[in-house]
Design a protein that fits this description.
Jelly Rolls; binds calcium ion; mainly beta; single chain; seven-stranded mixed sheet
């Protein structure tokens, strides 16, 4: 503890603290300022604050001390002895954080404001309305152009459309990744150090699969700027790209111009295209040449961006089977693409196994015996005691159901909370099928009320060649 406190207070790391260093760094703003990308920061500082002095004034370091007394031991919070106290906060104070973020704003999505008061002490010093106005003016953009994330010990972490898996052999070095998208050029630049696997959700990043276009990802190890230098101990990464790849059959994948063989140079797992072991001694470029024809999405309003004046969603309706209820809404505060998604909240039974769902209108032109793919994205928050499922319902020309194909995305669990992940269901239409509808569903057992929320977005149903 003394070693860690000394480090947090601004001293050099002690060798004895090495085992705890990654954890301490992961929890200290001093080391992970990169993670404030796309996060507006407002720093207010009373200059008369003796608890947390500004800038380079001395601070008093306190720690717990055990004293034997009769009849038992007692712990007291006391001032630490020299050299731990007094100490000087040399880095993670408001003025320096602001200066660093401001210097990064030229090359990254960083923004902060720094306000001091010569009269304020250890307490909030400005009218709440001023703070509210600041955040009102910086509403979150759910599809940012540039993302960044750094971690010293989380195995997997993510920022918006980028997910990184940290290289365990990095030891005390951080995993750091940055990415930026140029939508008009169809290009992502990605920069990694100590990242074993980098996943980019290209759909979420705003890149669409347009016929005849080329998408590209440029990879290198230039992760600047950094609060603390990061040494790359890996020299390579696995790249995973997320999109509705099944809708672009015949796509050509090249690495630095060399054509990659499907199943060898890269693999397709549903909505995930994986290129393993890309060495990064120099910059690499992966290109995806899309075919001149892409498979048509058979669903209307598949991103749920259109809403009727009465609040209903064109092309979609609320369906509750076998009793039960749920709060189902189109949701303007959450989205994978665009600004809206569909949500199922707190599904509850009425005695029998139940399904609370959004159901698409019946798409026509389905051919029995042909193969189809259903793709899309879902996220959860504190979702529990019900399953998440997607289903394609098959109908004949008269509208009679002739089959159903389901994929369970999640079994009922304690609490499920995660950001957008893709789903991919492949199914053969039964003979006689002429229409199909898609169900975005929560499924619960008898007498068991579910809780929490599931959101769905960017759903596509298309025929496979
Ligand atoms: Ca949407």
């Amino acid at each position: 503890m003394p070693d860690n406190w000394a480090a947090i207070a601004g001293k050099e790391d002690e060798p004895e603290a090495s085992l705890d260093t990654p954890l301490m760094r992961d929890n200290s703003a001093r080391y992970v300022l990169e993670n404030l990308a796309n996060m507006p920061i407002r720093i207010v500082q009373g200059l008369n604050d003796s608890n947390f002095p500004n800038q380079y004034q001395n601070l008093t370091v306190m720690w717990w001390r055990r004293e034997s007394t009769t009849p038992g031991d007692k712990w007291w919070l006391v001032e630490a002895p020299p050299p731990y106290s007094p100490a000087t906060a040399e880095f993670a104070n408001g003025g320096d954080v602001h200066a660093l973020l401001t210097s990064w704003s030229a090359v990254g999505p960083y923004y902060s404001e720094y306000n001091t008061s010569p009269y304020g002490g250890h307490g909030f010093m400005e009218p709440y309305g001023v703070t509210a106005d600041f955040f009102q003016a910086h509403a979150r953009n759910r599809q940012p152009d540039r993302v960044a994330y750094k971690s010293y010990d989380d195995p997997v972490c993510s920022s918006y459309w980028m997910t990184l898996r940290r290289y365990p052999g990095a030891g005390e070095e951080a995993a750091l990744a940055r990415a930026e998208v140029d939508r008009s050029a169809g290009m992502v630049g990605a920069h990694v150090r100590n990242v074993e696997e980098l996943t980019l959700d290209l759909f979420w990043a705003g890149l669409s699969l347009q016929p005849g276009k080329t998408l590209s990802v440029r990879l290198d190890t230039n992760t600047d700027p950094s609060a603390i230098p990061v040494v790359d101990r890996l020299g390579r990464t696995d790249l995973v790209l997320v999109h509705a790849w099944a809708s672009v059959p015949g796509m050509k994948v090249r690495l630095d111009g060399a054509l990659l063989t499907p199943g060898v140079g890269y693999t397709l797992e549903g909505s995930r295209l994986r290129v393993p072991g890309i060495t990064l001694a120099q910059a690499r470029t992966l290109t995806l040449e899309l075919p001149s024809q892409v498979q048509t999405n058979l669903l209307t309003n598949p991103g749920f961006e259109a809403v009727n004046p009465d609040g209903s969603v064109p092309g979609w309706s609320k369906v509750v089977l076998s009793g039960g209820s749920a709060r189902m809404e189109d949701h303007a505060k959450m989205s994978h693409g665009g600004t809206r998604s569909l949500r199922v909240k707190d599904p509850a039974p009425a005695g029998a196994p139940y399904t609370c769902s959004w159901r698409s209108d019946q798409a026509t032109g389905i051919q029995g015996g042909a193969n189809y793919a259903l793709t899309g994205f879902y996220r959860t928050r504190l979702f529990r005691k019900a399953a998440v499922r997607v289903t394609v319902y098959w109908y004949d020309a008269s509208g009679t159901q002739v089959g159903a194909s389901s994929l369970d995305l999640e079994a009922p669990s304690g609490y499920s909370t995660h950001d957008w992940v893709p789903f991919h269901l492949q199914a053969r239409a039964p003979s006689g099928a002429a229409r199909a509808a898609v169900g975005l569903e929560t499924v619960g057992g008898p007498g068991t009320a579910g809780g929490g929320s599931v959101w769905f977005d960017d759903v596509a149903l298309f025929r496979l060649p």
